[in-house]
Write a structure and sequence with these properties.
This protein has 20 helices and 21 strands. The protein is α+β, with helices and mostly antiparallel strands. It folds into three domains: 239 residues, Spore Coat Polysaccharide Biosynthesis Protein SpsA, Chain A; 85 residues, Transferase Creatine Kinase, Chain A, domain 1 (Orthogonal Bundle); 242 residues, Creatine Kinase, Chain A, domain 2 (2-Layer Sandwich), CATH 3.30.590.10. Helix 4 runs antiparallel to helix 5. The longest helix has 35 residues. 41% of the residues are buried.
Length: 652
């Protein structure tokens, strides 16, 4: 009996729940239909409604343009990120270039939230031909809002913060004191009375007057007699002329506005500021602040499309031989390899193939043409990098990997003759856990500098000199003495390196000035043992002892196949470069270069890679750093330089 009563009770509760849900759904659908067909007769636009009346859709309209320019890109981003609409509609009369870089970024940020909607450009209004495209856009915005409702924004309107508070009104529009309404920002329900009256006012269309139907008529003939048709927004929509505040000042009060009309099409109002991706930051003005405020909200991998789109166009020309180059990149990069790597990305620092090749695209005269943004890239982009590495280091096809790290028997290394002016050995090292040069953030640079500086100051006798804190006179003196690196070269810059220069850069100098450590130049560390003259034994011994100390305190990036990893793949393996500065008495530079090449050595200027030979003083060093041990590299320099010196002496 009790079971039957309990079952009946459950049945009754279930029935009541079903009835409730049906009523709820009916109520919701009824409410939605009512909202869509809202009758605004007697509506109070000063107080508004408790409900959100206006759909959360943002509308942009552009005619006769197949691409999105930089200002429109920034404004669309600002609308999406700072307002958060349900979706954004881009209305256009032409087919947009879907693969353009700005549209690609917008797609990656908004996904399906970005809707490109075909909209024929109005040619006539009430039988009268529209004189200019701007008048066609004025009419089109009223038609779009009357069809969909939502938030209309001119293509150069920047959204500072959410416009949701204005969606509680029938229609909200910028209407500054003593001025006409601004049609750059309109928030309206599709049944807003003002929209219908405004569109009807075009029966008295004045084609020769720029803003007659767009601002004067709706203000003087409609809103002045009936101001209650809209929610009047005095300054918050930023539709007044704010050119000085935007382009000549760092205007802090921009944050009090909801939107700001950037006046981008009025070039005479911002002639001192160039509104392009490449130049906008140079103005040091409010516009740059606004741009950076939205760019900073976009993920690095999405923003990389900005550079990658331009690079892909350049790369296509490169592959099609429209850009001439004799680099190893040119030799080994094929359309098939590019297609295979194009969508690959490292998981650690989101590096792409474009990060790898952009130095070669920027510098077609580069002999190599690639730089590596993080250690993971050596494997992610192996199909391109390995052939280049094998070619540069003269490795056989069956190369099985870098030999085990060994300093060898230091005592078997001797001294050079008196012709040698100075000798140095340098080692490059990357610290595990950090990206390589082009991906280092400002904080990465600072953290790494502090870590290494602490190890040096606790274990060696010397002084650390921060590059930003150096006087120009002191820096120049160090450069002239071949202690200090010079400014970043174009090859590193072309690969995205040397960012935030000179932050986090510096040099450690031992008290006897025979041991140096560069921090955050091309690589994380360049460790240098050097001295005047040719005592290679003493210099090598000092280096080995110093490296043993550093290796006990720092974890260096090492790969079983490639050895120690660096920003430039020409340095991987041992990363060791032993060089001598000397001036020959009889051999010509061309003769020295030819002989050095046969001995596995290279000749360059005394200020490093890509520098010219000056005053006849040459820098001779081992060409290879991969496929041999540290000891073999040192011995190659020792025996090779002595052989060239013997030839020079015989000539004498």
């Amino acid at each position: 009996m009790r079971k039957n009563r309990f079952a009946a009770l459950l049945l009754l509760i279930s029935a009541l729940l079903i009835i409730y849900l049906v009523k709820l759904e009916t109520s919701y659908l009824s409410s939605s239909r009512t909202l869509a067909n809202y009758d605004f007769s007697g509506f109070n636009n000063t107080v508004g409604s408790r409900k959100l009346l206006v759909p959360n859709i943002i509308h942009f309209i552009i005619f006769d343009k197949t691409d999105v320019d930089f200002v429109m890109f920034v404004c669309m981003l600002s609308a999406w990120l700072n307002h958060r609409p349900s979706h954004m509609m881009l209305h256009t009369n032409v087919k947009m270039e879907e693969k353009s870089k700005y549209l690609t970024v917008l797609r990656s940020v908004m996904g399906d939230g970005l809707v490109i909607q075909h909209l024929p450009q109005p040619s006539h209004v009430f039988g009268v031909k529209l004189a200019i495209v701007h008048h066609a856009a004025d009419v089109a915005r009223l038609q779009v809002l009357s069809k969909y409702g939502g938030i209309y924004l001119d293509w150069d309107v920047f959204v500072v913060k959410s416009l949701n508070s204005f969606r509680h009104y029938e229609c909200a529009i910028g209407w500054p004191e003593g001025a006409y309404t601004g049609n750059q920002v309109i928030v309206a329900h599709k049944n807003a009375r003002f929209l219908k009256l405004w569109l009807q006012s075009y029966r008295d269309y004045h084609p020769s007057e720029w803003y007659y139907n767009g601002g004067e008529v709706p203000t003087k003939q409609i809103l002045v007699p009936r101001p209650g048709l809209v929610h009047r927004v005095y300054t918050e929509f930023g539709v007044e002329a704010l050119d000085k505040e935007l382009y000549q000042q760092n205007w802090q009060d921009y944050s009090k506005r909801y939107t700001i009309h950037l006046l981008a099409s009025h070039k005479y109002l911002h002639d001192k500021a160039v509104l392009t991706e490449e130049e906008y930051n140079k103005c040091n003005c409010t516009f740059a602040t606004l741009v950076n405020s939205v760019i900073s909200q976009v993920a690095d991998e999405q923003l990389s499309v900005l550079n990658n789109a331009a690079l892909e166009d350049k790369l296509t020309k490169y592959l099609n031989n429209q850009i001439q180059s004799n680099s190893l990149l040119k030799k080994h990069l094929t359309p098939e390899i590019f297609a295979d790597l194009k969508h690959q990305m490292t998981s650690s620092f989101h590096s792409t193939i474009f990060d790898v090749v952009k130095t070669g695209l920027s510098n077609p005269d580069s002999s190599v043409g690639v730089l590596v943004p993080d250690t993971e890239s050596y494997h992610t982009f192996k199909s391109l990098l390995l052939p280049i590495i094998k070619d540069y280091h003269h490795l056989p096809e069956d190369f099985v990997g870098q030999p085990n790290h060994t300093w060898g028997n230091v005592n078997t290394i001797g001294k050079f003759g008196s012709e040698v002016i100075s000798t140095r050995i340098r080692i490059a090292r990357s610290i595990e856990g950090y990206p390589l040069n082009s991906k280092m953030t400002k904080q990465n640079l600072i953290d790494l500098e502090q870590t290494v500086r602490s190890v040096l100051e606790q274990n060696f006798a010397g002084t650390y000199h921060s590059l930003p804190e150096m006087t120009e006179e002191f820096r120049k003196d160090l450069v002239d003495r071949h202690f200090m690196f010079e400014d970043c070269d174009r090859f590193n810059k072309g690969g995205g390196g040397c960012q935030h220069w000179p932050t986090g850069r510096g040099i450690y100098i031992s008290n006897d000035e025979k041991f140096l450590v560069w921090i955050n130049e091309e690589d994380h560390l360049r460790i240098i043992s050097m001295d005047k003259g040719g005592d290679l034994f003493a210099i090598y011994k000092r280096l080995v002892e110093s490296m043993n100390i550093l290796e006990s305190h720092l974890k260096f990036a090492h790969d079983p196949y490639y050895g120690f990893l660096t920003f430039c793949p020409t340095n991987i393996g041992t990363t060791l470069r032993a060089s001598v500065h000397l001036k020959f008495n009889n051999l010509k530079q061309s003769e020295v270069k030819n002989e050095a090449k046969q001995l596995g050595l290279q000749v360059r200027g005394t200020h490093g890679e890509h520098s010219d030979v000056k005053g006849g003083i040459m820098d001779i060093s081992n060409a290879r750093r991969l496929g041999l041990t540290e000891y073999e590299a040192i011995n190659q320099v020792y025996t090779g330089v002595n052989k060239i010196l013997d030839l020079d002496r015989q000539g004498k």
